[in-house]
Design goal:
Blueprint lengths: L1 H4 L8 H10 L11 H12 L2 E5 L5 H12 L4 E7 L5 E2 L6 E13 L9 E3 L7 E3 L10 E10 L6 E4 H9 L6 H4 L11 H6 L3 E5 L9
Length: 212
């Protein structure tokens, strides 16, 4: 999904992703419990530059994430997935990855340069950027992330605060999975060290400037 958002010229098959992850030792059953491993995998299979953030999705990281999404770039976010794919709090027992691809912001009245935006034809109060994002990160009163989990058929809007809480409390592997007799790849320090409070920003590679 992230490769599509990055407009990868050849696309990336699921078989390629899984084969590469297993070959590099990032996964045994399809799981990836390390944001670092996910970043390395994304760089290899998507041909992008991955930036790993730690320390939670709030504060300065919140601004970085929102600016990244406003530029049309994807973010990979580990979180606990509820039965309807929305974020929940299960201590990491339902840990999955989601791809965030956009944002819906409620901002203070008069804080935007309206010349940079156009009103949505159906919803005049919804302002869409005309070209490059004009929002600089200030005056946000509400924030929703447009995201999709791999098993879901649709994108969903999730409150940023709910996603932040879910992302920050990924502490342990599901005990039933841990006792099922299968091999799983866990980073040093366990699932909490590998995922809690971490996200991966994906950047397009800059065009090569070397002469042919």
């Amino acid at each position: 999904m992230a490769a599509q958002l990055l407009q990868h010229p050849l696309g990336v098959s699921m078989e390629t992703v899984v084969h590469t992850a297993m070959e590099r030792g990032y996964t045994a059953q399809g799981e990836i419990f390390s944001a670092r491993d996910m970043a390395l995998l994304a760089e290899e299979v998507c041909g992008c530059r991955a930036e790993q953030l730690s320390g939670g999705m709030g504060g300065a990281n919140s601004t970085l994430i929102l600016r990244h999404l406003s530029a049309g770039l994807p973010v990979l976010i580990p979180y606990d997935e509820d039965f309807n794919h929305e974020p929940c709090l299960r201590s990491g027992h339902r840990a999955h990855w989601a791809v965030a691809s956009g944002i819906l912001l409620g901002v203070a009245q008069g804080s935007l340069k309206k010349g940079c935006f156009q009103s949505d034809p159906a919803l005049p109060w919804l302002l869409l950027p005309q070209d490059a994002p004009c929002w600089r990160g200030e005056a946000v009163e509400e924030a929703y992330v447009l995201a999709k989990q791999g098993k879901s058929l649709h994108y969903q809007l999730w409150p940023l605060e709910a996603l932040e809480r879910s992302n920050g409390q990924l502490r342990e592997m599901d005990p039933q999975r841990a006792a099922d007799g299968k091999l799983y790849v866990l980073p040093q320090g366990g699932l909490e060290a590998g995922l809690a409070g971490q996200v991966v920003l994906l950047h397009r590679q800059s065009p090569c400037c070397e002469p042919c």
